[in-house]
């Protein structure tokens, strides 16, 4: 499901010269087959403003779906076509429950799709390839390559009803209610 992503991280060497610190395939990939999702973590920050000195690969760590407190996360998400999934909607709902990301409000127990969840973050999303539906509490928005979404801590789910995988670039920035 996950396709290779070349990751180039540019920064400064000890003398202050701009250099490519990392150039190679992004290796921090989590595949949730039952949900048809692959998540490639590219970079994480732990504060705002972000620390600009790099001593370790900030994309080579384990975080949850949400960014760290006061931080950010940059990811590539890929969604398989729903019709290709072997899991049941109930099994997919269990993935969200295990991640403790259920929706909030009146739709918490009676949501429209098994992937409905909420992150406490501002999310900047660019659809890179394919098509996908953004499911909200009582509406849907069909998205295609080139479309951009800004989410502000809202309930949502992603459903790929097409025939091809959908790839999205996602930046999550920690938020507060």
Give the topology string: H per helix, E per strand.
EEEEEHEEEEEE
End-to-end Cα distance: 35 Å
As laid out across the biggest beta sheet, the strand order is: 3-4-5-11-6-9
Report the major sheet: 6 strands, antiparallel
Unreliable residue stretches: none
Keywords:
single chain; 177 residues; mainly beta; Jelly Rolls; 6-stranded antiparallel β-sheet; 11 strands; globular
General description of the model:
The chain is mainly beta. The protein has a single domain, classed as Jelly Rolls, CATH 2.60.120.10. The protein contains one helix and eleven strands. The strands form three sheets. It has a six-stranded antiparallel β-sheet with strand order 3-4-5-11-6-9, with no helix packed on it. The longest helix is centred in the middle third of the chain and has 10 residues, at 89-98. The radius of gyration is 17 Å and the shape is globular.
Please summarize what this structure is.
This protein has 177 residues and is mainly beta. 6% of the residues lie in helices and 41% in strands.
Topology (SSEs and partners):
Layout: E1 6-12, E2 18-25, E3 29-32, E4 37-45, E5 72-79, H1 89-98, E6 121-129, E7 131-135, E8 140-144, E9 148-152, E10 157-159, E11 166-174
Antiparallel strand pairs: 1-2, 3-4, 4-5, 5-11, 6-9, 6-11, 7-8, 7-10
């Amino acid at each position: 499901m996950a396709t290779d992503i070349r990751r180039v991280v540019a920064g400064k060497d000890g003398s202050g010269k701009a250099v490519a610190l990392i150039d190679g395939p992004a290796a921090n990939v989590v595949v949730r087959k039952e949900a048809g999702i692959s998540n490639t973590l590219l970079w994480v920050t732990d504060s705002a403003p972000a620390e600009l000195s790099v001593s370790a690969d900030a994309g080579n760590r384990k975080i949850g779906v949400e960014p760290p407190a006061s931080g950010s996360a940059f990811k590539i998400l890929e969604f398989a076509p729903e019709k290709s999934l072997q899991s049941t909607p109930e099994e997919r709902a269990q993935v969200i429950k295990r991640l403790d990301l259920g929706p909030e409000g009146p739709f918490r127990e009676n949501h429209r799709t098994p992937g409905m969840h909420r992150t406490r973050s501002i999310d900047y999303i660019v659809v890179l390839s394919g098509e996908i539906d953004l499911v909200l509490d009582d509406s849907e928005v069909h998205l295609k390559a080139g479309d951009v979404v800004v989410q502000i801590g809202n309930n949502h789910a992603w459903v790929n009803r097409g025939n091809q995988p959908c790839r999205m670039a996602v930046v999550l920035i920690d938020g507060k209610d």
